[in-house]
What we know:
Layout: E1 3-9, E2 12-21, E3 27-33, E4 47-53, E5 58-61, H1 69-84, H2 89-92, E6 97-99, E7 109-111
Antiparallel strand pairs: 1-2, 2-3, 3-4, 4-5, 6-7
Amino acid sequence: MEKKYLVMLDGQHEYTITETTNKKGHRVLTLFYSEAEFWRFDLRGTELLKMVDNGDGVKLSKISKKMDYSQLAELRLLLMFSKATDENPIERVGCYEVYEQSSDNNTCALKI
């Protein structure tokens, strides 16, 4: 059974993520451009990235070694979605805290 998720930004549908299971029982997440008019006509509804999670790791398709910032943001979106919707509750909780170490010993925490 396919699940479909709409990714919204400022009230506009930017992307769609589908979640399915392949014949081997592995979780498959696919990121698509939405059909919104702000995308070029030839991009609307097309697949951007696919991630197959076999339980021991993931395989990404449609990804290149060199990425621009928008591609990096799209990859991050798919990875964050994967973590937030993981069946294992341990994978869904928590985040890293990163501290800047400065010479005056003031620190600032970032949660990522």
